[in-house]
Every structure is written in C-alpha cells, then in structure tokens.
C-alpha cells in the first residue's frame, strides 16, 4: 500500500520532520531501505546505519532525531510505532467471498458471505465461520467448530471437534487444535493402559495467534482455555485442560502439561517446561529451557539449568553435581568441627 | 449413548447403590454434571464437590460412598472404572463403508469393505487396510503400507513407505510415521555430508496411540519398532531404529535418538531426551526434561536438571556450578589439611 | 537397481576382492543380508557378524578384509563408501513429467516439464519449479516461491510466500517453511501485544535436507538463511532471521531463537537451545540438550546440564544446588579463617 508520510504520521501519532507528501510502500532495514521504504531504529546500537540510510523515512525517538539524514517520524516508542506503521503498509488486499471449487462444506455448516475458503479445505458438519474468515489450502475443520470474525487459518491446519475460536485469531500452518489429551488409567498387573475418553474442547479467545506445528489438546472433561490476546509460537505443546491467562506469550518448543493454569501477562521463553496441575501467578516470566516443577505464587523472573562451558570443563563439574549433597554435608561437618574447637 | 445404571454397573463390575433404571448419556465433572450425566471421584480432595453434586451417578470407592448424595457405582479403582464407563458412553457411532468421492486409491491397494476413507485422502500402491479402519481428511499413505483392523488415522497424517501398523491403533493429526532418519556420513575435508539411504521401515504393534505432530523415523537398515500397547503423546520425536517395549508411555516433547532401545512398562515424562545407541531396562521411569546419556540397567525412577528459583538467586548459583570441580577440590584439600594437623 | 560388483567397486573407488560379475540389488545388515545384498562393517564391534555373514558383498577397511567370508569391497572409509553405494543401489526410478489431475497450479507459475506434482498439491501464483522437482500429495506452495533443480517436497509440506529454495533440496513431511516469526511489540499498560509484520523470506541453499515437522520462520525484515549443505532433523524450530552456515547439521528438537547466526560446519545435538541475537563460530559442536545463552567465539565442544541419577539421589543434590552460592561463600570464609590462623 502506497501511503504519504502525513497519513503515516497521523496513523501512529508521530511528529513528522520532513516532506508530508513523500510516499512509502514497504519496509526494510536501515542498510537496505530505499527512498520508497520505511525503516526504524529503536536503540543507539545502529546509529551508524542511521547516519547513512537511504530510507524514505525513519521512525525513531527524539534523542536520535538529529542524526537522521532523511525524513523522520518522531515517537516515544519506535518499535511499537514501527509495528503499527508496518501493519498498515503491508496489509494484505484480501479477496472476498471466494469458496474454492474443491472445498468441501458439510451439512448445516454456515460460512459468512465474505469468507475465503481455499482449495481442498474440508469443513465438517455444524461448523460456523463468521465474517472475514480465511481458511487456506488443506485445512480440516471437524464437526461443531465455531469461529468468530476475521479468523485466519494458514495451510494444513487441523481443528478438532467442538473447538471454539474467537475474533481476529490467526493459526499458522500445520498447527493442530483439539487433538486428544494424553490420558490413560493404568490397568494394573503390567497389562498396560485404558484410554480415558477426551470429551472436552478447546476454547480460544480473541486476538490470539498460534504458531506453526503447535498442538493444543482438548480437555478431558471441561475445556482447554486460551485467553484473549495470547500469543503462542511454533511447536509449542499445550496439554489437556491447560488454562492460559490473557495476553500471556509462549515462545517456541515450550511444553505445558495437563491441567496447569498460567496467569495473565506471563511470558515463557523457548523450551520452557511446566509440569501438570500447577498454577502460575500473573506477571511471571520464565527464562529459556527452565523446568517448572511446582506452582509460582509471585510475579517475577524465574530460571533453572546450568550455564554452558567447554565440554572438558563441564564434564568435571557435572560429575561433582552428583556428589553435591555429600559435599555440602562435609562442609557443614567441617564448620561444626571448627566451632567445636 | 443412553445407558441405564444397571448396564453400566455390569460393564464395569461395580456395585450399584441407587436406581438401576436411571439412565446417563454423557460425562462431566462433579460440579457441572446434571442428572443425565456420569461423574467420578478418585480421591478425597474433591469431597466437597461430591457432597453437592447433581450428577446422575458417581463412580467412587467404598470409603467415599457414604458421602455421595446421588446414585453411586462403588468400585475398587474409580479412575480406571470411569475410563471404561466413559469409553462405553462416548463411543462414536461409526459410519461404515464410505470412501469419499475425492479419495484417491492407488493400484493394487486393498481397502476392507467397512473402512471409512475421508475427503482428499491419498492411498498409494500396494496398500492394505483391514476391517474397520478410518482415515480422515488429507492423510497420505505411501506405497506398501499395511494396517491391521480398526486403525484410525486422524486428519493430515502422513504414513511413509512400507510402514506396518497393527490392530486398534490411533494416530492423531499431523503425525508423520516413516520419515527418513537423520543419517549422514561426513565427506571429510569440510566438504559436508553424504546421505545414508534410509531403507528400513516402521513397525507398530497393536493398541498403540501416537499423538499429534509426533514423528517416527524409519530404520536405516532394519526397522524402528513400536511395541504393543505403547502410548506416545504429541510432538515426540522417535529417531531411526529405536525400539520401544510393550506398554511403555512417552509424554509430549520427548526425543529419542537413533538405535536406542526402551524396555517394557517404562514411562518418559515430558521433554525427556535420550541419546542414541543406549538401552533402557524394563520398568524405568524418567522424570520431566531429564537428559539420559547412558544406558539404564535397573528399574527405578531417574532424574536430572536443577530446580528453578528466582532469576536473581539462580544467576548466583549457576555461575558457581562452573567452578564446582575446583570447589570440591578445595574442600578435599581443606579436609586433608585438617587431618594432617 | 541390480548392479555387478565391478561397477559398484568403480563407483565407490574400492578394491574388489571376489567375483566382479556377482550382482546385488539391495542392502541389509551383516546378520540379515542374503546373497543378493550389500552390507558393511566400520568397526570391529561387529566382527562376529562379519565372520558368519551371508551377504553378497561387504564394504570394509583393510584390517578386517581377511575376516570376510564373502566378496569384499575394501575402502578407507567404509561408512562413507556404504552411503555412496547404498545411494546408487536404492536410487528411486522416478516418474517424469506427471502433474496429477487434482493438482492446482496458480497463474503465472512455471513447472519444468519433467517435474512430478502429486495429488491435491496446491501451487499458488508466480511460483517456479526448475527441472526434476517432485512435490508429493497435499503440499501447499504459496505465492512467489522459487525452487531450483531436483527439489523434493514430501507429503503435506507447507512453503510460505516468497521462499527461495536452491538445488537438490529435500523437505520431509509436515515441515513448514516461511511461517511468520514470533514478533510483537508490547502495547504497554498491560494491554498486550502489537504484531510486527513478518515481511522477510526464507532462503535455502543447495543440497539442504529439512526434517519432518520442522519449522523455519521467515525474516521480520531481511531473510532467514539456511546455507548450502545444511542438514536439519525433525521437529527443529528455526526462528526469524536466523542464519545457518554451510554444512552445519542440527539434530531433532533443537530450537534456535531469532536473529542468531550459526557458523559453518557446526553440529547441534538433539534438544539444544540457542537464545536469540547471538553468534556461533565455525566448527562449534554442542552436546545434547545444552542451553546456549551467549555467543561462542571459538571452535570446540560445548555442554550444559546435569547428569541423571536415581530420583532419590537427584532430589538431595538438586536441593543443594539452590544453596550453591552460599556454600561457596562458606568455604571461602573457612579457607580465609584458616589462613588467618
């Protein structure tokens, strides 16, 4: 979308320093941007690139404005303002109202008139899609699924029976929503496992984004719940009956075991694991690959793991870890014996 | 399925205390269940909910029976009995014998008459599906695959060349069975890698369940083998030539490297990693996110990792880990010097 | 493919000891191979199997040649030579030039004449596939994708907008290339997140292999780059703007956060995690499940984590880890007080 800087300034609430009629039509980095492109800088690390940029306009904050050799949009929070500007510039011109000839729509399913349904999409029975939804090639939507407005399913997504999805939700390719939870009762006597039917559903709020090849299991009884504004990255595993509070964000490869509840405004970094049946307070941030084995009652930042080293050093230290309790006892003994002296 | 309590009691071997003609048709929690629903309680944590439940019947054990205000099914193991009862009540009424018009069936492939093949399914050549199989939308089954009775493939599953699947197996959406193993020979002189052809197959026993987006690689030579009754959760990675013993269960995000053998009746919790070419005895249980770097010869419970803390405390301790060997030596020196005194 | 030993010897540069006219047509293990099969041995562990093998020919190195009871192909590097020989023997006889009737090819897309496009494949607009490409059932290729020669997409692969793929690349089932990166700007005041449009692409070099259900995100601005000869296993997560140097290999379940750069000839073992915005030198090898939290400037082997133990022992040691800093201080105090004596 071609847009004059005066309109861009109004859209993001920026002070424009430069030519209000100049237009941009895409975004790029400070180094690569040309005259028709928008760029941004949010900290002084890249100031050298700023000084030589050929961008049509740069979004930046006041302290850097004087260093900008081209048009500038001065804002308080350049990263956020860039996100808003780039969203406007790169908005997709949507087709409207097209159901591909190869799409299969089941009995009693309702597709609002302006939805776009791609090739080889299969929509089962009693499904409803409200206005503005887009379903890309190869998606499968099972019985009794309901979607709000402006839901986008990218290619090859699977939505299980009875899933409810709110408005403005995007689900990336290969994600599976509403698969069976992992629930079995031991049969005893080494006879194996009896499956516990997984008859609950997944309920997803508004403004949620779910990454590629992520899986969200349905509830065993009751539902798995993803709150409003939750952002989930690729290859995240969310087990049955998990509840995620509004606006929490979960990075790639994290795994959350069954019936665990996460508060609002939490962040889990990549590869974090949460055991089942625990509760995480609002405002908790967990650093990468941390193993969370019990509930967290207070907001804050939490971590586990050991720092990496050369394998040679690590081997020496790791083997000592196996004796850490004995070591501690030795020291306590030593201290005690000193005091006794 | 609507079922009178007397039939339910007979099916699960329970003592019925209440009205044998009362019927239930679905399951719910103690809190939410109504008169037409079954619920259960398996420990006294939920006794308050039991006392006020409006369920049609509750499955419970003798000690809690007196507290039950509604019909009761008294059993020894309420969780297992619930699993069996819920399976009966929620059994799906299956369509039979339907091959969707858009399904593609390759030459010399046999599909038993009562199988259900969904839209856009592609079955290649020389495939055989025995009685009662269901293949959902978008699945791809490559050449020379054989499936036993009552195999269910959920949507968008991929089954690679030559895979053999036993009876009563369920594979959840997005799973990939029989993909190439990760095998390369170094070319030397920094020239990169020569692929080792992955010409073995995957052999899956009876009563196996495999989770959404899980991957099971074929063998390099010989086969990758999943034993009878094995249960595998979502996003598990099983490499080439792995062998998993009967009735073992593997939770989400676990990864098992090539040629490793797991015994019978083992459990791996979420995020566990096993290196390649090791052997795990029968009856081994590994806790979440544990890294298993060598064979385990004895049944038991095994763990690794460090407990999580506030990031502030963790940083202090983690940095000390890097000096743990030196610390241990200091202490041993100290003790020695004391003894020498 | 049936091939006489004299041709096999020439192909891999081996010295043949035995019958040059003898033919083999497939590969197997020393134990299972019959007269028409090739096998190999690369270390003396399996010498017992060598002595009794019934293979048609065995690839081995000089020191083991005297123990071989059947035809032998003597080479310097048996594993590499086996890989080359097996690749020749098991090469697939390719169909040529077949676009399945159910495939959908968008406007302005070019498919070279000898490509094979499977059932239910969807190719969008402005896509180009050079000579010898194979696209299996259910793949989706979005707008403006370009592929070089001999690219193979296995079933149900998704390729996002603008992805560029080089020659001789294989992508395994369920992989997603070019999905959106996980980029959001905080809105402040607990209002949640503003999406940052992900408008870069993925650029994949020549001779790359990408595993089943792996995801590679597109760049935010600029591209995510996978170098020549890179091998990526299953369920690997590669975030936006990551760069991977030539011939590096990444094993299953590894995760690489945004904007991280990996050098050439590196290996990451299974489950390794790299934080974002760091740089890994050429020739770095990271052992399984290691957490890499800052840049690595020198080639070498790196590790983190703790060794596994029985849960009973681990619990005792793990709790001590939480006091490791205090313990260290106690010891330093003790040593100081001794010196002061």
- Going by helix content, strand content and strand pairing, the class of chain A is alpha/beta
The radius of gyration over CA of chain A amounts to: 26 Å
In the CATH hierarchy, what is the superfamily of the largest domain in chain A?
A: Hexapeptide repeat proteins
Question: What percent strand of chain A?
Answer: 25-35%
Number of strands of chain A: 39
Strand order of the largest sheet of chain A: 8-11-14-17-20-25-28-31-34-37
Oligomer: homotrimer
Our count of domains of chain A comes out at 3
Terminal residue distance of chain A: 82 Å
Query: How is the biggest beta sheet of chain A arranged?
Result: 10 strands, parallel
Shape of chain A: flat
Keywords:
6 helices; alpha/beta; Udp-n-acetylmuramoylalanyl-d-glutamate--2,6- Diaminopimelate Ligase, Chain: A, domain 1; 341 residues; UDP N-Acetylglucosamine Acyltransferase, domain 1; homotrimer; 3 domains
């Amino acid at each position: 979308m071609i847009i004059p800087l005066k309109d861009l300034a109004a859209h993001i609430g920026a002070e424009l320093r430069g030519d209000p009629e100049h237009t941009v039509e895409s975004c790029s980095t400070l180094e690569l941007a040309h005259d028709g492109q928008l760029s941004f800088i949010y900290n002084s690390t890249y100031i050298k690139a700023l000084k030589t940029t050929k961008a049509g306009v740069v979004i930046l904050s006041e302290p850097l404005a004087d260093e900008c050799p081209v048009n500038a949009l001065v804002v308080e929070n350049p990263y956020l303002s860039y996100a808003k500007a780039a969203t406007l510039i790169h908005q997709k011109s949507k087709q409207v109202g097209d159901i591909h000839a190869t799409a299969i729509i089941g009995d009693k399913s309702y597709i609002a008139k302006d939805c776009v349904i791609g090739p080889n999409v299969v929509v089962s029975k009693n499904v409803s899609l409200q206005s503005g939804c887009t379903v890309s090639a190869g998606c499968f939507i099972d019985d009794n699924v309901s979607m709000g407005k402006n839901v986008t399913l990218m290619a090859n997504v699977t939505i299980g029976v009875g899933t409810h999805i709110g408005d403005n939700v995007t689900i990336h390719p290969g994600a599976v929503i509403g698969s069976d939870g992992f629930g079995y009762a031991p049969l005893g006597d080494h006879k194996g496992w009896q499956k516990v039917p997984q008859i609950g559903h997944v309920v997803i709020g508004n403004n949620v984004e779910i990454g590629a090849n992520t899986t969200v299991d349905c509830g065993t009884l009751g539902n798995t719940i993803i709150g409003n504004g939750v952002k989930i990255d690729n290859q995240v595993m969310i087990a049955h009956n998990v509840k995620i509070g509004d606006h929490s964000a979960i990075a790639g490869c994290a795994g959350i075991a069954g019936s665990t509840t996460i508060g609002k405004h939490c962040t889990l970094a990549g590869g974090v694991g949460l055991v089942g049946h625990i509760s995480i307070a609002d405002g908790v941030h967990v650093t990468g690959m941390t193993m969370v084995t019990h509930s967290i009652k207070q907001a804050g930042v939490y971590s586990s793991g050991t720092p990496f080293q050369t394998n040679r050093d690590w081997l020496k230290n790791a083997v000592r870890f196996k004796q850490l309790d004995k070591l501690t006892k030795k020291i306590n003994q030593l201290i005690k014996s000193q005091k006794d002296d």
